[in-house]
Specification:
Blueprint: H1 3-17, E1 31-40, E2 43-47, E3 50-52, E4 58-62, E5 66-70, E6 80-91, E7 95-101, E8 105-111, E9 116-125, E10 133-140, E11 143-149, E12 168-177, E13 186-190, E14 196-205
Antiparallel strand pairs: 1-2, 1-6, 3-4, 4-14, 5-13, 6-12, 7-14, 8-11, 8-13, 9-10, 9-12
Length: about 210
């Protein structure tokens, strides 16, 4: 199976799993993704595959692992890494949208005593970072194994401006601190389901 066919299969499968259980919400007549790119200390700069489900209620973005670690012999630069995805969504004028996480955040921890790890996510539209929707989760060692965290039902937004179509920015970072245990070590790794982040799209008329 080639890459495009495999990606198509993921889109169809996740679209079914993430399908709403209630009647479809009102959405614009036309929505498309112009381009999605990524870059940051934790991910190489690249164009990334992204897709919409047929009802325009889910946005799917390929997003790989993101890992931070700290400990003896580990460069300080590995203690905090980030990846920023920028998605250019084009839609029928007269509509505004916001996103929320549909699948939550999954990963793996390995933290010694008093080692801390933090997962942070910011979502905002270009030119309006002050309105960012933020999610943060702190982990305290000793801790190990897999974790899964969902965002709250009200963690929606911000809403895109009505007078212009601006790119959606999703900034994800992970960091590890050994301030309380300088001789300790720890790591945190994000491992999205199927290597894909799924977001719910919320639409309203301007």
């Amino acid at each position: 199976m080639n890459g495009s066919m495999a990606w198509a299969g993921v889109v169809v499968g996740l679209g079914v799993l993430a399908a709403p259980e209630v009647a479809a919400a009102e959405t614009p007549p036309s929505v498309s993704i112009v381009q999605a790119t990524r870059g940051g200390s934790g991910c190489p700069a690249a164009i990334v595959p992204a897709a919409l489900t047929g009802d325009y209620e889910r946005l799917l973005v390929v997003d790989g692992q993101l890992e931070a670690e700290a400990g003896p012999g580990v460069p300080l630069s590995k203690g905090r890494v980030f990846c920023q995805i920028v998605i250019d969504v084009e839609h029928t004028p007269g509509w505004s949208y916001a996103v929320s996480s549909a699948t939550g955040h999954r990963g793996r921890l390995d933290l010694d005593d008093d080692i801390t790890a933090v997962l942070s996510v910011e979502r905002y539209f270009t030119g309006a970072k002050s309105e960012a929707q933020r999610f943060e989760q702190k982990f305290q060692g000793p801790s190990g194994g897999e974790f899964y965290r969902r965002e709250g039902d009200d963690d929606i937004g911000p809403w895109s401006p009505c007078d212009a179509q601006r790119a959606l920015n999703i900034h994800t970072s992970v960091r590890v601190s050994k301030r309380e245990n300088p001789q300790g070590a720890g790591s945190i790794m994000l491992t999205p389901f199927w290597g894909v982040q799924v977001f719910k799209l919320h639409w309203r008329k301007c």
